[in-house]
């Protein structure tokens, strides 16, 4: 009985702590997307409120960082929109770091390709 109780408490604790963070639910363009034209923005949706504390987009072909400004940083929301400058054809890699509403740092990355301009 004690082993069952400990298993139940452990499962409940893991469930609660997993729900406490605000993981990324979706991103547009999606990871690995091949686009015929450059996107005008990147949209990120989190499970709960999150503040982007860093977002970087790099042209993977030559390593150039794409200038994005900072208006999208430190805004608490479950949906974020990062407006993009005109992008050339090529492969792009994004990396991000956010602060979830419970104070935990979450991070990730994704990539996409643009075939036309």
Structural class: alpha+beta
Q: Approximately how much beta-strand content do the residues carry?
A: over 45%
CA radius of gyration is 18 Å
Task: Quote the distance from N terminus to C terminus.
Answer: 65 Å
Task: Sum up the overall morphology in one term.
Answer: elongated
- The quaternary organization reads as single chain
Q: Which whole number gives the mean pLDDT?
A: 86
Order of helices and strands: HEEEEEEE
Task: Describe the model.
Helix content is 16%, strand content 50%. It starts with a helix and ends with a strand. The chain has one helix at 2-20; strands at residues 24-28, 33-35, 41-59, 64-65, 76-83, 90-100, 105-114. Strands 1, 2, 3, 4, 5, 6 and 7 form a 7-stranded mixed sheet that branches. It is of the alpha+beta class and 117 residues long. It is elongated, with a radius of gyration of 18 Å. The chain contains 1 helix and 7 strands; from the N terminus they run H-E-E-E-E-E-E-E.
